[in-house]
C-alpha cells in the first residue's frame, strides 16, 4: 500500500497543508519566501503532495511535470531554510497524522526533497 492510501488520502493531505502553512507564515526565515496570498500555494501543495505520496497525478494533470527544483530556483534556499521547512512540516504532520511510524516515513520522504531544493550556501544569505 502506498503512503497516500496509508495516510488516509486527500482528506489527510488537506489537513497537513492546512496545518503546515500557518507555521510557514509564522517562521521568520520562511515567511519572506512566500506570497501574501498563500491560498494558491496551498492549493498547488495539495495537488503536489497527493501525487508525491502515491495518489492520483493531480499536479501533473494541471501544471505538467513538477520540475520542483527548477520551480524553486528563483528563491534562495539554504540548508537552514530546508531545516525550517522540515520543522514546520514535522509539526503539521504531528497534528494531521496520528500514526508515529507513518509520520516518520512521510517526513523521511519529504526530507530528501527539502534538501534537494537547497541552492544557496549559508554564507550567501
From TrEMBL:
Q: Which Pfam families match?
A: Bac_globin (PF01152)
The alphabetical list of record keywords is: Heme, Iron, Metal-binding, Transport
Q: Membrane-spanning regions, if any?
A: none
Molecular function as annotated in GO: heme binding; metal ion binding; oxygen binding; oxygen carrier activity
Q: Which residues of this UniProt protein bind heme?
A: 115
The cofactor(s) it depends on are: heme
| Highest taxon of source | Bacteria
- InterPro entries, from UniProt? GlbO/GLB3-like, Globin-like_sf, Globin/Proto, Globin_bac-like_CS, Hemoglobin_trunc
Q: Does the keyword Iron apply?
A: yes
Q: Which residues form a coiled coil?
A: none
Q: Which PROSITE patterns match?
A: GLOBIN_FAM_2
Q: Which PANTHER family does the entry link to?
A: TWO-ON-TWO HEMOGLOBIN-3
Family per similarity comment: Belongs to the truncated hemoglobin family. Group II subfamily.
**What name is this protein filed under?**
Globin
Amino acid at each position: 500500500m502506498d503512503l497516500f492510501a496509508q495516510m488516509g488520502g486527500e482528506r489527510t493531505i488537506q489537513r497537513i497543508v492546512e496545518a503546515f502553512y500557518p507555521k510557514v507564515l509564522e517562521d521568520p526565515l520562511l515567511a519572506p519566501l512566500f506570497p501574501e496570498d498563500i491560498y494558491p500555494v496551498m492549493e498547488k501543495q495539495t495537488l503536489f503532495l497527493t501525487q508525491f505520496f502515491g495518489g492520483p497525478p493531480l499536479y501533473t494533470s494541471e501544471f505538467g511535470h513538477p520540475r520542483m527544483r527548477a520551480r524553486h530556483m528563483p528563491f534562495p534556499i539554504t540548508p537552514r531554510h530546508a531545516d525550517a521547512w522540515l520543522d514546520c512540516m514535522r509539526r503539521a504532520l504531528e497534528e494531521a497524522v496520528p500514526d508515529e511510524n507513518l509520520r516518520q516515513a512521510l517526513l523521511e520522504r519529504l526530507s530528501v526533497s527539502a534538501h534537494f531544493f537547497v541552492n544557496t550556501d549559508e554564507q550567501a544569505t
